[in-house]
Amino acid sequence: MKTAQDIKANNVILIDGSPWLVQKAEYTKSGRNSAIMKMKLKNLLTGSSTESVYKFDDKMDVVILEKIDTTFSYKSDDLYVFMDEEFNQYELRAEDLESVLPFIVDGMTDICNAVFFEGKVISVDLPTTIVRQIEYTEDAARGDTTGKVMKIAKLSNGTEIKVPDFCNTGDWIEIDTRTAEYKSRAKAPV
Amino acid sequence: MKSATTHSQTLRWDIFCNVIDNYGDIGVTWRLARQLVHEQQQSVRLWVDDLTALATLCPATDTRLKEQTLAGVDIRQWLSQDSAADVADVVIEAFGCSLPEAYVNAMAARPDEVLWLNLEYLSAEDWVEGCHGLPSRLGNNLQKYFFFPGFTEKTGGLLREVDLIHQREQFQGDPGQPATYLASRGVHAEPGAMMISLFTYENPQLGSWLDELSRSPAPVCLLVPQGRVLPDLQRWLDVDTLRAGDHHRCGSLDIYILPFSTQEEYDRLLWCCDLNVVRGEDSFIRAQWAGQPFLWHIYPQDEGIHLVKLQAFLDRYSRGLSEQARNALQDWWLAWNNQQPLAAGWKELVKNWPELQKNAQIWCKLQSQQKNISQAIVIFAQERLSCTPKNLA
């Protein structure tokens, strides 16, 4: 058990048997040397989000969820299939992958953490940095090499991302999965 | 008192008050309980762990009784060994006090919905709007929410009796009433005296202000209810003790020590004064309803966080003032709360007096146009109890 003031973003807390991901945790002093915590929470089973406020000393069950390394295998209708080193397959629906879906592409080799709650896979975490190829983007405007002018680039799965104007179709780029932002150009994966 | 709203549903309320220090906890909950009963036609039990604090505000309280009814409110002495009583429809934990475990278990077990509210501290800071009315999901299938008083429409409002402003205007509009009230308290102010009330925490710089008041070209009458500032006053007067009924004169300054009063009597004291120097939360709000300039001695907190809250209020309260008046007000308030010398700031403040008086009236009118807490909290409760199933999503 922890108190609310000890809870940080990315902790998972248990409420009425359901795991809730703490997406944001803000500590604010209220009155008489007391404090409150305002949290943005996401139910890892249903995907619903909410904001909640707690007294700083409210007791909370923090859950350490089991994670297994997997790679993306294939997509079948609405199901995304991941596989671990022992060839066990784990199926997730698109709605379970909401935050990472924009970055899932056929043939990707990133090591993904499949997250389990009570023996059932509930989500997948991608690495914070991934490398993807630009499927299509407009040609660079003449003369700009500053990187400050941005344009839209499309990945192979249709995801659009803003990239510097000097990026071209076919270029490989690094993306921060936490912010969905371009980081830098990258070498093609081996 | 008139009913402010029409309700289709009378709910049963349990308000829990843990008296920590001073009279803010009991002051706010006692006031809220009475308003819920008399203005919102609700049924209220007020659980208090320290009945002597309530007795100070309400002398009719019998501190020996576990149960009694006062002003229509069912008062219960809250003892740690209490087993769970029948749970109310709405349960308020005032200022985040911890409810008895047995009672919380009884709330979870109750077949009908229970609404659990944490009535929080008052603050003018911006973050309050983003937290007011948010749930506090803790499990046990209990629905708990945070309810924040505040100064904007997006908060729970302030404690105010529905006909308070009308009462105050009647009192102040009749010259006989203030004079009669003051005489009943043993106060005989000189004609034309500036009337000041003083009810604050300790302030070692108090003397620097009193020195200035004693040198005032016009008479000043300082009314001091018994409280924490008396030792500082005693030191300045160089006397061994100060008791209710004492009167001292120093130059232009008359000082009267008053007994600690009921909430209604304290309102009348504030209404008699040109300046009210107040503290905490309940008297802070009452000074605003008095419609006169005031100074707020905010409850000191660790790491100076109270100064952030003080500034947040000052920013709202002084928004309509000229730069000169705003600076004078802020400088004096900050000097008081930082325990710095007060004479220079006082002189600047007095130069801006007409503007400060007008600002106080405008502020009072603005705040009184909001729903008061008893209205807002009943609406909040009725909305949540009527639409939420027993099992949370």
Task: Explain how this protein is built.
- The complex is a heterodimer of chains A (190) and B (393).
- Chain A has 190 residues and is an all-beta fold.
- Chain A has no helices and 17 strands.
- In chain A, the strands form 4 sheets. Chain A has a 6-stranded antiparallel beta sheet, with no helix packed on it.
- Chain A is flat and about 60 Å long.
- Chain B has 15 helices and 13 strands.
- Chain B has helices at residues 24-38, 51-57, 101-109, 127-131, 164-173, 176-184, 206-214, 230-237, 263-272, 282-289, 305-317, 323-337, 343-351, 353-368, 373-387, and strands spanning 12-17, 43-48, 67-70, 73-77, 90-94, 115-119, 143-147, 194-198, 220-225, 247-250, 253-258, 275-279, 294-297.
- Chain B has 393 residues and is α/β, with parallel strands linked by helices.
- Helix content of chain B is 40%, strand content 17%.
- The radius of gyration of chain B is 22 Å and the shape is globular.
- The chains are: A mainly beta (190), B alpha/beta (393).
- The interface between A and B is medium-sized, with 24 and 27 residues.
Task: Describe how the helices and strands are arranged.
The complex is a heterodimer of chains A (190) and B (393).
Chain A: E1 2-3, E2 12-15, E3 18-29, E4 35-43, E5 49-55, E6 59-62, E7 66-76, E8 79-83, E9 89-93, E10 112-117, E11 120-125, E12 129-133, E13 136-137, E14 150-154, E15 160-164, E16 172-176, E17 181-186
Chain B: E1 12-17, H1 24-38, E2 43-48, H2 51-57, E3 67-70, E4 73-77, E5 90-94, H3 101-109, E6 115-119, H4 127-131, E7 143-147, H5 164-173, H6 176-184, E8 194-198, H7 206-214, E9 220-225, H8 230-237, E10 247-250, E11 253-258, H9 263-272, E12 275-279, H10 282-289, E13 294-297, H11 305-317, H12 323-337, H13 343-351, H14 353-368, H15 373-387
Parallel strand pairs in B: 1-2, 1-5, 2-4, 5-6, 6-7, 8-9, 8-12, 9-11, 12-13
Antiparallel strand pairs in B: 3-4, 10-11
